[in-house]
Each structure stands twice: as structure tokens, then as C-alpha cells.
Sequence to fold (103 residues):
Amino acid sequence: MGERMSDINACPRRRVPERTCVACRRKDSKGSLLRLVRTATGEILIDKAGKQNGRGAYLCPFRNCWESAVKGTRLEYVLKGKIELESKKRLLEYGQTLPVRYG
Ligand SMILES: [Zn+2]
Fold:
């Protein structure tokens, strides 16, 4: 009772920072997921270096995740703001360059 031994975030062996894909909720190391950032001007950037300031969201480098995140409300929810149609189009176009994950 009251023990937090199973708390995955507290596991001391894991030093790699983990992030969760906003579309499929899979966890992966920060470097394996792609970061999206909503800048102060409301623009959505694909932050390849992971250094951009702003509210960020992580997505797997797979088309499936990009499509479900952009077409649904998930991304807007996580980034706390409306995403313009132009930005969505750009994100979907980028998603088209990514491989599809099967299974
Ligand atoms: Zn994903």
C-alpha cells in the first residue's frame, strides 16, 4: 500500500528520456520520435534538432501516426491551440514522406 515501486517513470535503470507519441501513445526515446513545436506565433514547426522553444508534441516517424494526429484533434489538444489548415496540410505532406507502420 502506498508503494510506488512499479512507477515506470521512477525506474532508475532508464536514463534515456522517454516521450510518448501523441497519436498511438507508444513510448520511445526522445531521439526516435519527431518533435512538433507550436511557436509563439501559432506556427507549427517540425523541430528536427529538438531545440525549438514552444509547446511541443512528439510523434513516431510513421505516416500512420502523423495522419491520425493531424486529422484528429489530438495534436491541437496537446499543443493547446488551433492548427491552421495550411499547417495541417504541410504536416500531412511531411507525413507522406514517412514510412507506414504495419501492425
Ligand atoms: Zn505513434
Notes: The beta strands are 18-20, 27-29, 34-38, 44-47, 55-59. Residues 39 and 53 are 7 Å apart (CA to CA). The chain has three helices and five strands.
